[in-house]
């Protein structure tokens, strides 16, 4: 079971928060840990499947939607920028992510949490700071 909490900030003030609990799959392959779960209406991505690939201090997040043409990919690595495309049924948007912090507190048994603090910019217009916490519970 996963508890996923997302916060959006305006300055230092939390502006919006979502939280939901869902089932997920956790497995290891090579030197990476994979965490896969389905998004919900609460996350704003209903019908999407999210895959996290955790390798050392780097987290790759890939979201693929049930709608044709929807998807996005982020790479979170502290202090680094990542440019990507946000694919929507209405067209593609340029997206830039600057990762402030990434903390992977998963134990060898696969329990614990993952915390990501990042800034995101869509087409250079919509900008904001987000925090994502994923707790892997028994």
Would you mind describing this structure in some detail?
The protein contains no helices and 11 strands. It is an all-beta fold and 138 residues long. The strands form 2 sheets. Strands 2-1-11-10-9-8 form a 6-stranded antiparallel beta sheet, with no helix packed on it. Strands 3-4-5-6-7 form a 5-stranded antiparallel beta sheet, with no helix packed on it. It is globular and about 40 Å long. The termini are close together. The mean pLDDT is 87.
How is the topology of this model organized?
Elements: E1 2-10, E2 13-22, E3 24-29, E4 32-38, E5 48-55, E6 58-65, E7 71-77, E8 81-88, E9 91-104, E10 112-122, E11 126-136
Antiparallel strand pairs: 1-2, 1-11, 3-4, 4-5, 5-6, 6-7, 8-9, 9-10, 10-11
Q: Give the topology string: H per helix, E per strand.
A: EEEEEEEEEEE
Outline the low-pLDDT stretches. none
Portion of residues in beta strands equals over 45%
Give helix % range: under 10%
Shape assignment: globular
Compute the number of strand runs: 11
The helix count comes to: 0
Largest sheet: 6 strands, antiparallel
Rg, alpha carbons: 15 Å
Largest beta sheet: strand ordering? 2-1-11-10-9-8
Report how far the terminal alpha carbons are from each other.
6 Å
Coarse structural class: mainly beta
Overall residue-averaged pLDDT value: 87
């Amino acid at each position: 079971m996963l508890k996923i909490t997302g916060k959006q900030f305006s300055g230092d003030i939390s502006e919006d928060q979502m939280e939901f609990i869902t089932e997920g799959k956790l497995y290891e392959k090579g030197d990476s840990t994979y965490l896969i779960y389905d998004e919900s209406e609460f996350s704003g991505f209903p019908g999407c499947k999210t895959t996290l690939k955790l390798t050392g201090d780097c987290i790759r997040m890939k979201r693929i939607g049930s709608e044709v043409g929807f998807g996005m990919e982020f790479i979170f690595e502290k202090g680094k920028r990542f440019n990507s495309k946000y694919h929507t049924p209405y067209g593609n948007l340029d997206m830039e992510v600057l990762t402030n912090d990434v903390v992977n507190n998963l134990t060898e048994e696969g329990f614990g949490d993952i915390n990501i603090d990042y800034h995101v910019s869509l087409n250079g217009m919509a900008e904001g700071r987000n925090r994502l916490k994923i707790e892997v519970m028994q």
